[in-house]
Amino acid sequence: MKIGMMNNPRLDLCAEIAWAKKNGFEYLDLTLEPPVFQAGKVKIEEWKKALKEFDLGIVGHTAYYLPIASPYETLRQAAMEEMRWALRVFAEIGAPAVTVHPDRSISSSLSSKEILRRNLQSLEEISRLAEPLGLRILIENMDRTFNTVEQIQEALHRIPQLGFHLDVGHANLNVERNRTGQFLQAFQERVSHVHLSDNFGKSEDLHLPLGAGNIPWPKIIGLLKDSGYDGTITLEIFSADRRYLLFSRDKIRELWES
User: Fold this and answer.
1) What is the rounded distance in angstroms from the CA atom of residue 238 to the CA atom of residue 18?
2) What does CATH list as the number for 2-257?
């Protein structure tokens, strides 16, 4: 098991790489988002040098709000162009895999069936773009769209090269019971990456430190270990005070070892 953190896209990436290494994280979950990360503003050679200097691995993470299922085809194509740029950057700096987020789109303009179809269309196109770059695309379960076993199963069946990114915090939203166990049972062989953060269920994706919400972490970590998962786990704890992130780092190590 490797523990990583996500960079803050508002901060200098080289400084984030140094902080991650200094504080015992084994990789950086690199998100390419504005304001710092925009086409024409990247410093690829500088980032590669910092990653090599601090001996830090990365996984890729694209912006969750790209409209890849937009009812406007021109907007969907614009999102795909941003995706092409991001994939080229990730490939050049050595990411083995990249997370893509399904788009819940505009429910008043599209039916749920059409939103699913457009997401699948874009995911197929993104996977084809990623293949010659040596990247594997991962699909993340979200809080509304792609939050059931059936929806994710359709994507994984239709796109065999797709991996599954399990977000335990999202699995706790808009449901009566956390769906982590269901996802692990259904997709044990396809789970390629995991995000952890806490919340109180309902609809608010709070990204709290582990133990600050109502997710039963001893049970969740037990389910992950029982499934045989031993890969990358990102602590997606968003707080200006990073002591909460460091507390969560220590908490997961304690739970994993016990």
Assistant:
1) 18
2) 3.20.20.150
